[in-house]
Amino acid sequence: MTVRAYILVQAEVGTAADVAVAVSGLDNIVSADVAMGPYDVIAQAEASDVNHLGRIVITDVQKLPGVERTLLCPVVTVDA
């Protein structure tokens, strides 16, 4: 089973593009885009379970230069 999530990142002023590039290079990251609003980067991740997603955020994303704060938003797929 694959679990998906969005990782919302607040970056230091002037670092959003660099943070997005760095995040997109991490394992398990599907995409990373610069955004406008309260979050500067929105990334999509996939992993085997929610615990793995949490480890991606804590051990990989939060340690990148320029990252100030993150928010993990797991996604539930609903069949219509």
Describe the protein's architecture and organization.
The chain has 80 residues and is an alpha+beta fold. Helices cover 26% and strands 39% of the residues. It has two helices and four strands; from the N terminus they run βαββαβ. The chain has helices spanning 16-24, 50-61; strands at residues 3-11, 29-34, 41-47, 67-75. A four-stranded antiparallel β-sheet has the order 2-3-1-4, covered by helices on one side. The longest helix is centred in the last third of the chain and has 12 residues, at 50-61. The mean pLDDT is 94.
Q: Which short descriptors sum up this protein?
A:
80 residues, 4-stranded antiparallel β-sheet, 26% helix, 2 helices, globular
